[in-house]
Write a sequence for this structure.
């Protein structure tokens, strides 16, 4: 099993075991996730269960979205009908990026686009990765 697959499965398992965030906090909101992703990107975790799980969710979600964007990029190269796909793609170099590097890309993008912080964490991650590694047409 590859490291990416392991990270994705680990992140998904963590996501399934996490209890809901405290009232008023939305774990799918970029504002909520940014500090946890920043901790993961900089390897500066607080060693309590909530912080570790949230950083793990960040890495798992980002890795999963990166995998999907790369898959879509590869599919576009092979099948012409996929060109009209509404989904984006990213030309992320295989084995050249770690989960922490992907998290750094998200953190940089989010901090550079503060007006977009109200958006879904997952959507903003996709835009960050597509911006960093655009697909060639």
């Amino acid at each position: 099993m590859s490291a990416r697959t392991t990270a994705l499965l680990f992140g998904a398992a963590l996501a399934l075991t996490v209890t809901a965030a405290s009232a008023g906090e939305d774990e799918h909101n970029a504002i909520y996730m940014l500090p946890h992703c920043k901790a993961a990107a900089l390897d500066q975790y607080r060693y309590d269960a909530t912080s570790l799980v949230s950083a793990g969710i960040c890495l798992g979600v980002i890795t999963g979205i990166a995998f999907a964007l790369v898959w879509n990029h590869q599919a576009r190269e092979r099948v012409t009908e996929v060109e009209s796909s509404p989904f984006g793609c990213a030309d992320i170099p295989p084995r050249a990026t770690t989960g922490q590097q992907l998290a750094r890309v998200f953190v940089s993008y989010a901090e550079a686009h503060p007006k977009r912080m109200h958006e879904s964490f997952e959507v903003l991650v996709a835009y960050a990765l597509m911006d960093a590694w655009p697909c060639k047409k």
In short: The mean pLDDT is 77.
